[in-house]
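QA checklist item 7 of 12: single-chain prediction sanity check.
[x] sequence parsed
[x] length recorded as 153
[x] structure emitted
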Amino acid sequence: MTPEDRIKDMGLVLPPPAAAVANYVPWAVTGNLVMTSGNLPWRDGKLAYVGKIGKDLTGEDGYLSCQLSCLNAIAQLRDALGSLTKVKRIIRLEGTMGVDESFKDHPKCLNGASDLINTVFGERGRHTRMIYTNPVMPLDCTSLVVLYAEAET
């Protein structure tokens, strides 16, 4: 099965790659490394999740928000490479979340992105990751995901 097939099997649809919202490019390739810019939880051109996790949204909403942000990041990888079969390995996932100061389940929320990557790419999806929080998120979104991937040359 291809990564695209696995996404369909999960009942998800890989969206078209989102355009940049400011003065940057959505992805860059150097050598065999592909890096995405931060990807928000876009669905049909609108943010699907806004507000603070643990205040306005539940931890489950945070999981789904991170999953959707990651799905948008995967769409950027496909745009950069033409096909997800060219992803040799996901090296790093970085997730930034807008959370209430009392919320402590950041790792469970970012598992929404990690679980998606591991399902879509299998062993090639095993990655390192970093979690950040930001007191004010861009466009009041709940999550932002960045991916670093090694590509076939």
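[x] summary fact logged: The first helix runs from residue 3 to 9.
[ ] second reviewer sign-off
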